[in-house]
Amino acid sequence: NLSASSSTLAYDREFLRTVPGLLMVTEIVLGLLVWTLIAGTEYFLYPAFGWVMFVAVFYWVLTVFFLIIYMTMTYTRIPQVPWTMVGLCFNGSAFVLYLIAAIVDASSVTKDLDSHNYNSWAASSFFAFMVTSCYAGNTYFSLISWRSRTLQ
């Protein structure tokens, strides 16, 4: 006699109405702009843009992953993981590496390098700084959440 158990995933509709949720969606949208603007060029000829591309795609994929975890409330099913610490480390590392990538991106954009791709690279630099500020905001909220958990 086999019994089938069904478990349904919860869905947190309110997460997207919070500031961290809105920042996460903004990070996904702006991060997508960063890497698509660079991917549409001959970035592979210039190592600096390869680094920006790596950071942008890496953190875009991880941010989508974390959005799914938060939206489906999967973190409640895995209580062994210190989610506040994971969120703080993720957002902190994203902020630092995106800041470095944005600076590298901005300092590498010149008309002398390749005037054909100048506008795309300049736009990607702008959006990289915007994503950096979103990750800075989420790092702040993660720090507040982590501190409130450690004080209990």
UniProtKB/TrEMBL annotation:
Coiled coil, from the record: none
GO cellular component, one term: membrane
Source species: Tyrannus savana (Fork-tailed flycatcher)
Membrane-related topology note: Multi-pass membrane protein
Keywords: Membrane, Transmembrane, Transmembrane helix
Pfam family, one: MARVEL
Signal peptide: none
Protein name per UniProt: CKLF8 protein
Statement: the UniProt record of this protein carries the keyword Secreted: no
InterPro entries named among the record's database cross-references: MAL, Marvel, MARVEL-CKLF_proteins
Superkingdom of origin organism: Eukaryota
Any one GO molecular-function label of the UniProt entry: structural constituent of myelin sheath
BP terms from Gene Ontology: myelination
PROSITE patterns cross-referenced by the UniProt entry: MARVEL
MARVEL domain mapped to chain residues: 15-147
Subcellular location: Membrane
TM helices/strands, residue ranges: 21-38, 44-69, 81-101, 121-143
